[in-house]
Design brief:
By secondary structure, the chain is α/β, with parallel strands linked by helices. It is 32% helix and 20% strand. The chain is globular and about 55 Å long.
């Protein structure tokens, strides 16, 4: 299979509200940063793909406006997915695998601040049986968390969930782009009131605005553009049944299957960036991905430190790639999710050249 790597990664500073900044103004500095990192101009990129959601913007085809940040003249080869940018990266990866391009620019962005995100996300639910009940994203995550706490053999309790939050946000102190950093110890977190039982505020991701971008390149081009490319050894994505009532919410078979197809179980990773917006979801993902205690999970802070909609999954792949670039790990696993209760999942395996 043709070798393809992530050769550059950049992201914005994630903030609760960017009312004074348009999507184009938010995306442009990130795009310039990643292109400058590899010494390319937009016109030299073979393929461009973006991920975003018109529901967040509140207007149809809003992604076409964001193209002003890329520059669509002279005409470029471009595509868009109404998904997290991790799935845009998947499309660009397949395009490079077929030899249709040597380089690709992938970017994603989301502004959640203009509306009520918990209500907006109800629009992705089954329109006949679930959406009319208006269960928001936190209520559904609480349903999943309670199922996990009630299940036998998971070893999960509220203290374990608080430990996930404390570890993630403490790790985010080293991430200059994180929205939330630092955390009191788990004992102090457990004294806080419930938001939606059994979830407290620390169990949930911050709502914020942000953008991210990566540059992909194939084979010798990747080696020319990056001192230590993060080679994509495998990537796959799978989905669960749309109906929550037919799923075991304490498991994520789609994550496990995507990991198998991506080759994640062929060798243990040094580091894992998991897109787990809620603490209970990290517990589920660690079990499905068979991550040992020695694996560093979300050293960037993960989605509990910054969770810009439509970009948080791409950031997980970017953070994993950046760790490979700087020599912090040799083999990294990256995961992205979309939809309620880990409905759709993507897994990628990244490796650096042997040192």
């Amino acid at each position: 299979m043709r070798e393809v790597a992530i050769v550059a990664f950049g992201q914005s500073d994630h903030r609760r509200d960017t009312a004074e900044t348009s999507e184009v103004e938010m995306v442009m500095p990130v795009l310039h940063r990643v292109l400058d990192a590899v010494g390319l101009r937009a016109g030299e990129i073979g393929f461009t793909c973006s991920g975003s959601s018109d529901y967040l913007a509140g207007r149809a085809f809003s992604f076409t406006m964001a193209l002003d940040g890329v520059g669509a003249w002279p005409p470029i080869s471009e595509s868009h997915v109404e998904m997290d940018g991790a799935w845009a990266l998947y499309e660009a990866w397949t395009r490079l695998l077929t030899g249709e391009a040597e380089t690709a620019l992938v970017y994603a962005y989301g502004k959640s601040s203009p509306g009520d995100l918990r209500e907006v996300l109800t629009r992705q639910l089954d329109p006949y049986y679930v959406a009319p009940l208006w269960p928001d994203s936190v209520a559904l995550a609480a349903l999943q968390a309670q199922a996990l706490l009630d299940a036998e053999g998971t070893g999960a309790d509220e203290r374990a969930l608080a430990g996930v939050a404390a570890r993630s946000r403490t790790a985010a102190e080293d991430n200059p782009h994180a929205q939330l950093t630092g955390s009191p110890p788990p004992e102090a977190l457990l004294a806080e009131p419930y938001l939606v039982r059994p979830l407290r505020r620390h169990d949930c991701p911050p709502i914020g605005d942000g953008a991210a971008a990566v540059v992909l390149a194939a084979e010798d081009t990747a080696r020319r553009l990056c001192r230590r490319p993060a080679w994509i050894r495998g990537m796959d994505h799978r989905t669960e049944a749309h109906s929550l009532g037919v799923r075991d919410l304490t498991r994520s078979p789609s994550t496990r299957l995507a990991a198998e197809r991506a080759g994640a179980f062929e060798a243990p990773p040094d580091l894992a960036e998991l897109h787990a917006p809620f603490t209970s979801q990290e517990v589920i993902l660690r079990r499905e991905l068979r991550l040992a205690e020695a694996v560093r999970v979300n050293p960037s802070g993960g989605a509990l430190a910054a969770n810009p909609m439509m970009a948080a999954g791409l950031i997980r792949l970017g953070e994993a790639a950046a760790a490979v670039h700087r020599g912090a790990c040799d083999r990294a696993l990256a995961h992205a999710t979309s939809g309620p209760c880990l409905q759709q999942n993507l897994v990628a395996v990244l490796e650096g050249d042997v040192r």
